[in-house]
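Encode chain A's predicted structure.
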Amino acid sequence: MTSQNVEKGDIVYLEIDSWILNPDGTRKLHDTTRQELAKQEKVFDEKKIYAEMPFIVGYDRLAKGLEEEFIGKAVGAEGEVTVPPEKGAGSRDPKLVTTKSIREFVKMEIEPEVGMPVVIGGRRGFISAVTAGRVRVDFNNPLAGKTIQYKYKISKRAEGPDEKVRGLIEMDYGLGEQFKITTTGDETDILIPDICKTDERWLVSKFRIVADVRELDLLRKIRFIEEYEKKEKKEEAKPEEPHEHPHEHEEKPAEEPVKKAASTKRKEKAAEEEIRTEENSPEEL
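Encoded structure for chain A:
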């Protein structure tokens, strides 16, 4: 029988706010799943989707102090917990802060701004300062050395293989509801949406999903399926036959046949070009 309480390895959906506690007793909103709060605290990002988020419990996907808070809690539980640096993102390491010339960013077509996330030499960091000709990049976790206060609600838990796989997709890539998932026994087929076919981010996310399935020992086999349908060729409408003018066959002055012949040649040439164009046009798939 499945426990009603959260256990290690569960995929749970959280509504969560995280606040940075400052030494002077004030606090600043770092992240939230609630759009209204983000707007209220003036950290709203129009590119972000504000909704409950899935996480794997007990696999270092969250701050250790936060994961410890969830274990044993009932689905639907709400609470607050304060997590110190040693149970959160750890202490800041001064060796992970470096200064670079602004010309390096110009070459990468980047206009550096404080707080901007960057990837340099395969390492993720953020710009902590911009001065005349110099840019300071911090490769520490943005929350390193900080005490964080979390307010949370465990809104639901993924049950069954289909829900768990969808939760992993949502966590590692997003757009979980756009994937069609079918499980038979210990094998799952995942029909991917069209957007993934041209999204470079999906190539990386797909391997993360596979790694998560293996780490949780969730299924024996998963298959990612792409579908391409042949487009039906549309029939082109035939041009209407020109109506014959009642005086078309009347005798005309001597110069008229010359003009008519030239006109006929132009029509024949246009017809030949039209036929050639139709012959060379590729079939639609």
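The chain has six helices and twelve strands.
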